[in-house]
Specification:
It is a single chain. It contains twelve helices and 21 strands. The strands form three sheets. Strands 4, 14, 15, 16, 17, 18, 19, 20 and 21 form a nine-stranded mixed beta sheet that branches. An eight-stranded parallel barrel has the order 5-6-7-8-9-11-12-13, surrounded by four helices. It has a three-stranded antiparallel beta sheet with strand order 1-2-3. α6 links the parallel β8 and β9. It is globular and about 75 Å long. The protein starts with a strand and ends in an 8-residue tail after the last helix. The structure holds pyridoxal-5'-phosphate (PLP) and lysine. Pyridoxal-5'-phosphate binds next to α10.
């Protein structure tokens, strides 16, 4: 469910027509619905009612300051993977105690930055990282709160590029090694062991991989308890899928209902790290048709958004719905490849789409609120798109379209 619906034949975001947004702000533009973001966050938060919990939104999905601010106001926690994300979350007003820090390559600078503000915990992903974190914390006269991200070696049955919980993936601490690391960590002067977690992949459509991963983690929690190592929280990660086309992912309530009995039995605080399930269907990418181009027996619909704005189709062969903003009955429907202006054959947003469009028409690429703008680049010296948040009838420009000055910021010419 989302707040993007046709009213009088025109697609709207909440109470605002996307045509009006394009007229005022131009294209390509990402448009997010505040109501959808809030509802999706609350679906997780409410599902966890009755257990101590913290829903840590995965900032990488959509890190616009206004998006973070909306979630911060709902008392969200935040899962970050870099110093840059930490900075954003703090700017959005989040208290450090609601921030968890994931990622396989945390630098010393990032560790110091996070220790200085006092984040909730580091999700540690290797022995080398543990040793570094201990060293950095001791030098600062602090103790770093640590939760190991365990790799439970379960197949999440998703795209191989976004599967993270198999032994061969670079993520997490091998479950067989984790026990020894917990013992070592509990003796380190700069470390306080606080939790355990996992994150097995993204766009998961089944409950069973979540259940398998949790069972393996809980068995480890028991083994640790027997050795006198007690934890405060368990983090079941993110990864819940969304509907792009005809997928039927479990909703947050179904996921939590399935895992609740096992979690309640532990008495631990529960954390989750959803990204896509909160932001994905809360946004669209608004784009304008520039040209229609027949080529052999194909037809191309060339739009002003490209792979630099939304890389998921090119990168994962991902399917995202592409719909007209204004429904037209006066035109013939054709099968188009919807492509951008970038000089790559991989620059496409959709293949074989049935559309009735003419140049100048607006299209909306659906489910673009997660891993859209955050994965955008300036390839081909294309300024990154504007971002808008709609809140009822209010339209907020929350990131201005980049200018040519933005494109060359920080560059310098040689003194020739
Ligand atoms: C550690 C971690 N947590 C949470 C997420 C969020 O994943 P998703 O957007 O699939 O919920 C990711 C990305 O997959 C991640 O790497
Ligand atoms: N960026 C990916 C998901 C990767 C998740 C990051 N841990 C996507 O668009 O589907």
């Amino acid at each position: 469910m989302d707040h993007f619906e046709y009213r009088d034949g025109t697609l709207c975001a909440e109470d605002v027509s996307l045509s009006e947004i394009a007229r005022v702000h131009g294209t390509p533009t990402f448009v997010y619905s505040r109501a959808t973001l809030s509802r999706h966050f609350q679906a997780f938060d409410q599902a966890l009612t009755g257990m101590p919990h913290l829903v840590c939104y995965a900032v990488k999905a959509n890190s616009n300051l206004a998006v973070l601010q909306i979630l911060e106001r709902l008392d969200a926690g935040f899962d970050i993977v870099s110093g840059g994300e930490l900075d954003r979350v703090m700017r959005a007003g989040a208290p450090a105690r609601r921030i968890v820090f994931s990622g396989v390559g945390k630098t010393e600078t990032e560790m110091r930055q996070a220790l200085t503000v006092g984040i909730r915990c580091f999700n540690v992903e290797s022995e080398a990282e543990l040793e570094r974190l201990n060293r950095v914390a001791v030098a600062m006269n602090k103790r770093a709160p640590v939760s190991f991200r365990v790799n439970p070696d379960v197949d999440p049955r998703t795209h191989p590029y976004i599967s993270t919980g198999l032994k061969e993936n670079k993520f997490g601490v091998d479950i067989a090694t984790a026990e020894r690391l917990y013992r070592e960590a509990s003796e380190m002067p700069g470390i306080t062991v606080v939790g355990i977690g996992c994150h097995i992949g993204s766009q998961l459509l089944d409950l069973s991989p979540f259940m398998d991963a949790l069972d393996r983690l809980l068995a480890l929690v028991e083994r640790l308890k027997a050795q006198g190592i007690t934890l405060r929280h368990i983090d079941v990660g993110g990864g819940l899928g969304v509907r792009y086309r005809d997928e039927n992912p479990p909703d947050p309530a179904a996921l939590v209902a399935a895992i609740r009995p096992k979690l309640e039995a532990t008495g631990l605080e529960v954390m989750m790290e959803p990204g896509r399930a909160i932001a994905g269907n809360a946004g669209v990418l608004l784009t304008r048709v520039e040209y229609l181009k027949p080529a052999g027996d194909k037809h191309f619909c060339i739009v002003d958004a490209a792979m630099n704005d939304l890389i998921r189709p090119a990168l994962y062969d991902a399917w995202q719905a592409i719909v007209p903003v204004r429904q037209r009955s006066d035109l013939e429907t054709r099968t188009y490849d919807v492509v951008g202006p970038v000089c790559e054959s991989g620059d496409w947003l959709g293949h074989d789409r049935e559309l009735a469009v003419s140049p100048g028409d607006l299209l909306a690429v659906r489910t673009a609120g997660a891993y859209g703008f955050t994965m955008a680049s300036n390839y081909n010296s294309r300024p990154r798109a504007a971002e808008i948040v709609v809140d009822g009838t209010a339209v907020h420009l929350v990131r201005a379209r980049e200018s040519y000055d933005d494109l060359v910021r920080g560059e310098a010419m040689l003194p020739l």
